[in-house]
Automatic annotation (TrEMBL):
InterPro entries: Calcineurin-like_PHP (IPR004843), Metallo-depent_PP-like (IPR029052)
Protein's UniProt name: Calcineurin-like phosphoesterase domain-containing protein
Keywords, sorted A to Z: Glycoprotein, Hydrolase
Glycoprotein is among the record's keywords: yes
Record lineage: Eukaryota, Sar, Alveolata, Dinophyceae, Gonyaulacales
Calcineurin-like phosphoesterase domain span: 5-310
PANTHER family registered for this protein in UniProt: METALLOPHOS DOMAIN-CONTAINING PROTEIN, SPHINGOMYELIN PHOSPHODIESTERASE
Gene Ontology MF, one: hydrolase activity
Length: 456
């Protein structure tokens, strides 16, 4: 049984226009008017390493990567996983004929920095090479994804981001007279036949170890913020059909005595957020996704997501089996969270623990950040395993009744032990009730019923 560690980074939101002399009033970017300039400068901290309320400068990303390298466990990391949103918020404010190239350039700059600090570690941010686990900001405008039918060819944006994969897909189609990555009904089909599925639908599968695989999903079109001109498609990009076949392929692999599982990864989690308790996915897609996951829990090791800029988790419904949805926080401190990264420990086909690292960008010197371990999951919550049952009984069930567990959870949510928002929400019973319902109820109807029962 192979065991080791991997590093998860997310929501980098790299901002090439970050200006330390500008504050959160103007998103740490120089405004156009003189009056705005004075107001913006007055709110600035002057830190080149980032400010709350703004996205990440290159110096902050490098500080995170240096800390992650220094904090690497014995033996180092076996791979680095990036779960989307490489690019800063508000790219639509910088529209130009070069917008596509600028977005791709920011994404490549972020990936290049990771490779610089981890040159000998496998980098998995999609299919492992050019492709990405895309966040909603990894387009020329927020959620600006064009849904295409993979049966009609590759997607223009995915192909632009990953030209080598696009070339590989084109060569494969030309040589076999079919789009092999989408030949789901072929008896010999394998999700590992080609790395080109990304350019068709923004998803893919990679082998990590002999016992562990990674499935990366495209989640942007499932979002409640995604604009459909007409009724949403039943299965955009045919992704859920592909996911079903990929998981079935893993199950068949186990029939020869193997014990393999997959990490199901994506950017936007199928749940309610932790700010305004808004549904992040359309309900129809949540139900369809859970139906697939529930049928293949025997080959799913964990569900790893991000997007929310906070450190939390979600439990599957009691009538749907499956592992917890683990949601990691961000590098960008834009939502008043502190920058962080997560180190996972795995053994065989299972994840067995994680440690969160964070740094306080307000109290640290301007030219130095000290990333310290915030907590380790099994130690902090007394978990024997990273299973749904353990997280339900040891954590979720106690959030409503045990003040100590609740306060610990809140101090870790945004990696800040203090601050007006943290203090207010920690003391607010209304917020607490909604937060507990969100943790326990992925489906929107279940969440609303839970809140209504608490308020009754």
């Amino acid at each position: 049984v192979r065991s080791g560690h991997f590093l998860q980074l997310s929501d980098i939101h790299l901002d090439p226009w970050y200006n330390a002399s500008m504050g959160r009033e103007c998103f740490c970017n120089p405004p156009t008017g003189a009056e705005e300039l004075a107001k913006c400068a007055a709110s600035a901290t002057g830190s080149t390493l980032g400010q709350h309320g703004c996205d990440a400068p290159a110096a902050l990303l490098r500080s995170v990567l240096a800390a992650a390298a220094a904090r690497a466990p014995p033996g180092g990391y076996d791979w680095v996983l990036i779960t989307g949103d490489y690019t800063r918020h508000g790219m639509e404010e910088h529209q130009s004929p070069r917008s596509k190239a600028i977005v791709r350039g920011i994404m490549r700059q972020a990936v290049g920095a990771v490779r610089e600090y981890f040159p000998d570690v496998a980098l998995h941010h999609g299919l492992g090479y050019e492709p990405y686990i895309l966040g909603n900001n990894d387009f020329t405008a927020d959620y600006n994804e064009t849904v295409t039918d993979p049966r009609n060819g590759t997607n223009p944006w995915f192909s632009f981001l990953a030209p080598s994969a696009a070339a590989s897909a084109a060569a494969l189609a030309a040589s076999s007279h079919e789009q092999r990555p989408l030949a789901f009904d072929d008896a010999e089909w394998s999700p590992l036949d080609d790395q080109a599925t990304f350019v068709y639908g923004g998803y893919g599968m990679r082998k990590l170890t002999h016992e562990l695989y990674m499935i990366s999903l495209n989640t942007v079109m499932y979002s409640t913020n995604y604009h459909w001109e007409h009724d949403p498609e039943e299965d955009p990009f045919r992704q859920l059909r592909w996911l079903t076949r990929a998981l079935e392929w893993l199950r068949k692999t186990n029939r020869d005595g193997s014990k393999v599982k997959a990490l199901v990864t994506g950017h936007i989690p199928p749940t309610t957020d932790h700010f305004k308790f808004k549904a992040l996915w359309r309900d129809r897609f949540v139900k369809a996704y859970l139906a697939v996951i529930g049928n293949y829990t025997d080959v799913i090791a964990a569900q790893l997501f991000a997007h929310m800029h906070c450190d939390t988790f979600r439990l599957p419904p009691t009538d749907v089996a499956g592992p917890p949805v683990f949601i990691t926080s961000s590098i960008s401190p834009v939502f008043d969270n502190n920058p962080s990264f997560r180190v996972w420990k795995y053994s065989g086909p299972a994840v067995v623990d994680y440690t969160m690292y964070s740094a306080d960008i307000e109290s640290a010197p301007r030219q130095d950040l000290s990333f310290e371990p915030l907590y380790t999951a099994t130690e902090a919550y007394g978990l024997k395993a990273m299973t749904t049952e353990e997280w339900r009984t040891k954590v979720a069930d106690k959030l409503a009744t045990d003040d100590k567990v609740w306060e610990q959870y809140m101090s870790r949510l945004w990696q800040r032990g203090s601050g007006p928002a943290v203090q207010a929400n920690t003391k607010s019973m209304a917020y607490r009730r909604k937060a507990v319902c969100a943790v326990k109820n992925i489906r929107r109807g279940d969440f609303e019923a839970c809140v209504a029962a608490q308020d009754a």
